[in-house]
Design a protein that fits this description.
mainly beta, Immunoglobulin-like, 2 domains, five-stranded mixed sheet, five-stranded antiparallel sheet, 13% helix
Amino acid sequence: MRVAAALCAGALAAALASCGREAPPAPVLTAQGFRISERQAGRIGGFVSLKLRVEAPAGIERLQVSERSYEVDLARSPELQHLPLFALERRVWSLRDVTLDFAPYINAKLDAAGDYTFEIDVSDREGRTATQRLSVELLEDEPEEAEATDPPPTARLPAPAASGDFRMQRVGAGPVQGAERFGLTWTTIESVAVTIRLRAAEDGAVRLARLASPVFDAIATREDLARAVRGEGGGASIDLATANGAAAGEVIAVQPATSDGAGYVLRTDHSETRLSEAGTTVVLVGRYKH
């Protein structure tokens, strides 16, 4: 009887411990630098980078991409020639996060103007799924002009602003990875919404300013960028809530310490937080112009 009672007690303790474990978050698909609900347009054979981030903390079990009659499971397909079409070097089975770039597929396989739709389905190793649709419009090449004319000698075309992707991450009290270019760091000042105080690193930025969301898309030239960076307002720090994607859509101007630097304007498209033994992990992902 004592043995049986001990076995029952052990089984109950194991069951309670199992119930107390927090399951990893479900898979998430996030567009990088654009809104997934909007059709993305480009020229035939010259489509630029079009990235979608896949996050599955429990591990990717299946990652299915479909476009008309084309269909491939990027997690397990034995046909490795599919991987470069999405800028991958290896199959993604069991990975927890990966970024797909659809531009190589579009430029290699779509050769007629029109509308196309990708279906992306991801399943994690807990059996949970997430789905997104990515719409693309291909445009005909612009006809060449019969006679190219140079601008008048006195005309000066404005220099375009450059852009890129960023991913910044801090685990516990460690350094902020990916923020060196912008001269930034942060500290966590509130643990419930995981509010961080974004500020200058040593010898880094001298002023930060929160801008309206439409400003980012309106910046086309370096003159536009300079006006946004050196506008009114701002200060030494900005507080951002980051849990559950709360920082998505935030636009921040960063004025550098060097007088000759044009500065940066960053737009956060995705934010997340995770708890671990090493401390709270805070991740910011987005685009920047400089």
